[in-house]
Amino acid sequence: MESAQLIQMLERFIELADETTLVEFKSNWKKAQDIGEYISAMANAALLAQQGQAWVVWGVDDATHEIKGTRFDPFKQKVGNQGLIMWLQQKTSPKADFEFHKIKYQDLELVVLEIRRPRSAPIAFENQRYIRIDSNKTRLSQHPDKESRIWNALGMKQDWSGEIVSEATLDDLDSDAIESARKRFVEFLLKNETDAERQTTIKEDAAGWDNATLLNKARITKAGKITRSALLLLGKDESSHFLSPVDAKISWILRESDGKTRSSQPFSPPWLLNSDQLFTRIRNLSIEEMPDGTLFPVAIQQYDNWVIREALHNCIAHQDYSMGGKVNVVEYPDRLIFTNLGQFIPQSVEWMLENQSPPEHYRNQWLIDGMIRLRMIEQVGSGIRRMFETQKERLLPLPDYELNEGDFTHPRVQVTIQGRILDERYTKLLMKHVDLSLKDVMSLDKIQKQVSIPKGEAQRLRKLGLIEGRYPRIFVSGQIAASIGGQATHIRQKGFDNEYYRDLLEKLIREHGPVSPKVINELIIDKLPDSMTEAQKRKKIRNLTTDLSQRRKSIENIGNPRGPGALWTLRDSQTQ
What we know:
Elements: H1 3-14, E1 23-26, H2 32-48, E2 53-58, E3 78-79, E4 82-83, H3 84-91, E5 92-93, E6 98-105, E7 108-116, E8 124-125, E9 128-133, E10 136-139, H4 144-153, H5 175-190, H6 196-208, H7 211-217, H8 228-234, E11 250-255, E12 261-267, H9 271-281, E13 286-289, E14 298-301, H10 305-318, E15 327-332, E16 335-341, H11 349-355, H12 365-373, H13 383-393, E17 400-404, E18 412-418, H14 427-432, H15 438-448, H16 455-463, E19 467-468, E20 475-476, H17 478-483, H18 487-494, H19 498-512, H20 517-524, H21 534-551, E21 555-557, E22 568-570, H22 572-575
Parallel strand pairs: 1-2, 11-15
Antiparallel strand pairs: 2-7, 3-4, 5-8, 6-7, 8-9, 9-10, 11-12, 13-14, 15-16, 16-18, 17-18, 19-20, 21-22
Helix pairs in contact: 5-6, 8-12, 10-13
């Protein structure tokens, strides 16, 4: 918005009797956590009010609405070493659409935060969704009626997968797929049934069902009418035209490590059968894992079969078919990548793992219900956690979820399953610690992948003795590294004690002095911890020379004390 427009809008705001759901005044308030929560609350409130934006204005007294100006500068504000705006983007899910504006009014500086309504899912901050009610901020989960209205406003009320295709009939479904559905649905009914007599009754009843009855009971059709779900899961290839303009295909692509495509194949419905055909194309090779206490490697498969199927079937279940794209499975020599279009509906992957329960809404509820009854996916909410647990038990890296939420027109979910051990010396040991929670294992998994973790998680791992280093440059602790033969790596990360560096510096000056700072740097800088930045290493060397010259008085500078001509030598007493 132009400054003139912002000023006109500001003048309307200050005429209000009180703050509203969509307008908040602040003076110099700049706590990053609060700003993030307000972005979530006011974005969701804007959607609920059917307005395009909500606003926070710095430099206006919230009680009197007097213009006072502000010292707050969001473009210079830092959270740790990170800029405030980027930090807020990373902490919101899906990525919030907001913009800070600086304006001048009555010779005073003001800041206006424009918060735009969400387009695909309620905005969460640090995995928690908020809502603004009058001038108060509260958790959205405490107001289920408002949450339901927000989802309805986002278009989640209409289930694309459950819509009837009036022109299609049972003849448009594949007969082999129907028989497979019968077998799988009976297995679903028997899964939790322990009574032998009841099991026999279920099998006898199922054997007598005609196809229409079977599909109604399995929630594939509705009163004998063909749904879009039925065409996706059981439909003949030639019946895909009923789903137009949706491109009902799953693409399998085989690529080399350099990204070149080696082979590819599209798979059309019926996906109940053809997802298994895709599964057979994946090269599940063997890798070697060295068990503790033995010298003989044990061969294991790169991927767990169940994990592959769950990742693939999740893409089918949660694809936003209205976007017209395909599900993709890309196979590299060391990893599998699964992608589907559409917003990730739960608050976050971490939320799903912690709560072990389904979110309140799903995009394709009818399709998901049918896939559960055909045993294609786990009961809602448990599949993702089982994928993580399985990878943990196999001593392999945990799945990586990449949520392309910044692209509002083409949101996408990408899941990467690693088929290799990233660091066999200590990842294996960490995964074998049965006393560690999955949350802690997830944090350690991020560390081995050099992904930053929140400071609170790092503090918890430090208390457990699992990490060292100064946050955010943290690494596995020496105790773990020594247990797995990673001592050399640990020393490079942690470094030596100061006495070692002092002795090294004095020996250099004694044998080759006088020496310049450049020579000192060349000797010592490579021996400092890998976890330090270049600037931290140079500061460390300056501190060493200062300590030896001013406190210990063993060396002195006989050149320019502040310029490039500095020369360090031993003091006379030391030389003698």
